[in-house]
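From the shared-data thread, chain only:
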Amino acid sequence: MSHPSPSQVLPHREPFLWIDRCVEIGEDRVVCERTFRADEPFFAGHFPGNPVVPGALLLEGLAQTLAYFALRNSPGAAVMLTGVDRCRFRRPVRPGETVRFEAVMQRQLLGVVTARATATVAGALAASATIKGYMPGTEKAEPHA
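Structure, as tokens:
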């Protein structure tokens, strides 16, 4: 099944769109992917001779995955990142690797959506965090269990 592209759902655009595609979406879970190209400009300085995707960009990929889930049925809306808890980085992500971002919704109430999110490469955990986002104007929406 084909899912809308991230640029059709998210307000983000290049050079700050950190997910390439949505590969799976369910009632309380979403999986997106990003392949980091060797020519990405940040690799030149992070780190010369030993390029690694910055942890902040992995975290942003997790946040955009949460936003994709929250916005897929809310055209024109936005999700503002409001919290990151228990964030851990476990393995470096290198040029040419594909990161699988997965977010499992824990709660959606009064405009705040919370998910447990992971970033993996070939099944190996690269990063994990609990992510919270706020959707202005959705405070009266039905809660998500």
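DSSP finds two helices and six strands in the chain.
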